[in-house]
Amino acid sequence: MPTFNYYSGVSDPIQNIKHFRDKMVLYSRNDLIICLTFPFNLEGVTSDWFYSLPLHSLHNFEEVTKAFSHSVRLSQGGQEEQPSPLPLKMRQGDSLKSYICYFQSQLAKVPNSREDVSALAFISGLQISYPLYKHLWSMMSPE
């Protein structure tokens, strides 16, 4: 089994998860082993958090990492961050089709993107001169 640097919740939880995944690369296809090994990389309040979870409340490593990073960020006094495709902007001379294709390719890189945030990012990136811009903004405004 690999050796780990213990994580106590002081630094960035995402960096800890990346470090853990790097160490566990040989076991990456076995989600059960990854989940069962994760607490070996924790200490102090982060370890306490893990062992306070109700049995069978998380079902895979993706759920573990989401709950873990959310919990650590909140305990650090921050808020859960939502990855965003901002600040994409349609360039002068770009066709609407090319902007849509580019936006979709960038959005695909954002894990678990929220539809409302993505829609706002898309509209914000449109050129104001496009009729679509005004139409979409009018649809998003409360009446």
Describe the structure.
The chain folds into 2 domains: 63 residues, no CATH class; 45 residues, no CATH class. It is built from 7 helices and no strands. It is mainly alpha-helical and 143 residues long. The relative contact order is 0.09. 52% of the residues lie in helices and 0% in strands. The chain starts with 12 loop residues before the first helix and ends with a helix.
In short:
With 143 residues, the chain is mainly alpha-helical.
Task: Give the key terms.
single chain, 143 residues, mainly alpha, 2 domains, 52% helix, 0% strand, elongated
Intertermini distance: 59 Å
Outline: elongated
Report the major sheet.
Answer: none
pLDDT < 50 stretches: 79-85
Q: Count the helices. How many?
A: 7
The total beta strand count reads 0
Structural class, judged by helices and strands? mainly alpha
Would you list the SSEs in sequence order as H and E?
Answer: HHHHHHH
Q: Can you give the mean pLDDT?
A: 80
Strand content: under 5%
Counting structural domains, the number is: 2
Report the radius of gyration as a whole number of Å.
Answer: 20 Å
**Helix amount:** 40-55%
Spell out the blueprint of helices and strands.
Elements: H1 13-23, H2 31-37, H3 45-52, H4 61-75, H5 96-107, H6 115-125, H7 131-140
